[in-house]
Write a structure and sequence with these properties.
With 102 residues, this protein is an alpha+beta fold. The protein has four helices and five strands; from the N terminus they run βααββαββα. The longest helix is centred in the last third of the chain and has 11 residues.
């Protein structure tokens, strides 16, 4: 299943999030680490502290494991919608934004 996600990022935690994305912590997480990393590289900032992205997940509850292990630590107000295919959002690259914080 593919989902479209909108979330508010917690600004003061973004340096830690970027570190986890780039030091292998998230990438090596099984079974979804690579999908999380790829999703964050495609995520776009669409408003003040708001990002949107698409992600594939096979959990019975959408993004359950991803939220428990990663997303709920760094995001709030997540809105998750089932979509037919990956969505390309307009806006500033979230990953580029994170790189600037480093």
């Amino acid at each position: 299943m593919i989902y479209s996600i909108k979330a508010k990022f917690i600004s003061e935690k973004m340096e830690d999030f970027f570190k986890s994305l780039t030091d292998g912590t998230i990438e090596n997480q099984k079974p979804d680490g690579q999908e999380i990393l790829n999703s964050m590289k495609c995520a776009k900032i669409t408003g003040p502290q708001i990002i949107c992205w698409s992600e594939m997940c096979f959990c019975p509850t959408p993004l359950k494991h991803e939220r428990q292990t990663v997303y709920d630590k760094f995001f709030s107000e997540m809105e998750i919608k089932l979509v037919n295919e990956y969505v390309q959002f307009e806006g500033e690259s979230f990953f580029d934004y994170l790189k600037k914080l480093d």
